[in-house]
Amino acid sequence: MRKRLPLIQKVNKAALLGLCLVASFFYRFNSKYRNIWLVCERGYEAGDNGYSFFKYLCQNHPEIHAFYLMDYSNQQDFNKVNSIGEVIQYGSFKHKILFILAKYLVTAHRGTIEPWNYQQYKRFCGFLSKNQKYIFLQHGITKDDVSNVLGRKQTSFDLFITGAKPEFDYISSTFGYHNGEVVYTGFARFDDLHSFKIKKQILFMPTWRKKLAWSNISDRAEMFKNTDYFRYYQSLLSNEELIRVLNQSGYQLVFYPHHEMQQFVDCFSTNAEHILIGNKERFDVQTLLKESSVLITDYSSVFFDFGYMGKPVVYYQFDSVDFFQTHYKRGYFSYQSDGFGPVFSEEQEIIDYIKFLVNSNFQIEDKYRQRIERFFTLKDQNNCERIFQSIIQLK
């Protein structure tokens, strides 16, 4: 019986695909389902480039038949998207039908918008949607060498959106894409980073570690507590001098680990009045980025958004050798010569620099401001418009 299971699963998948193909034929008679723009992020959220671009479509091009894919169980994000346009349950039968019918597939994450393996789908059923275009909005600016994941041989992207000029130069020259398949438009969400109110808040947002997030160890929490990742960050959160600085200055620190590390967020603790441990149910990343005065991170690409807003960034990289050996390969970006702030490996250096920023009213240093200006040669609220124009020009 076990040997027959894979065959049964394949038959069921083929039957479902066949049913979707038949249903899509009848959907084509409804003008609402012609020339569809299907937009997605991770499939259960709306707060990134996908949502920003969908909002732009709904507000500026109501003539376009645009649909946003997400799980209805995320009621907060569902209500937000549903108030501006039509939402389709992620993974539903209708998702699969609209995927077949869509003229444009627009996504912030690879491998989420497609209900089937896209390359196999195109191979066997591509004749049904031969003019379909796949647009990759990206989630964060690419700074490391991830050509083994996002290179042209590994993807089916017809258009690869970049958020900065050095990123565009790097991807278009080293990832194997043809001329015109990579464009520098700026990220869709950058349109919303020009108006914000800053609170007395420090955002501490480290990125993830592949070997921890994808560990197969049964007692993952216990494993995690024995890692340098936990020990270093818990130590900083418990630092008496940091707590004293926060109390005296009136600033609050929000510790918000990367999405992939949220599974371990309950391992961290604090008794400090001015330190909060942030989880994804309670906090919205874009709101945190806009309202915070300074960002402490290790390697998270959210520092690009923060720098774009002209606010100071601090890098805490206690494990850089291990990180670039086991997580990502170095790309074009050097934290030392291109970074938007100082790079530290010791806890005390972080404390000292926070005190420096408090005393300077959290003003970004000139040398870092100049680096940011060189990095973002486009800085306006026309990013979504440029993306839109790039899409409709696809042949």
UniProtKB/TrEMBL annotation:
One of its GO terms (cellular component) is membrane. SUPFAM superfamilies: UDP-Glycosyltransferase/glycogen phosphorylase (SSF53756). InterPro entries: Glycerophosphate_synth (IPR007554), TagF_C (IPR043148), Teichoic_Acid_Biosynth (IPR051612). GO terms for molecular function: CDP-glycerol glycerophosphotransferase activity. It holds the Pfam family Glyphos_transf. It comes from the Bacteria. PANTHER family: TEICHOIC ACID GLYCEROL-PHOSPHATE PRIMASE, TEICHOIC ACID GLYCEROL-PHOSPHATE TRANSFERASE. This is Teichoic acid biosynthesis protein B.
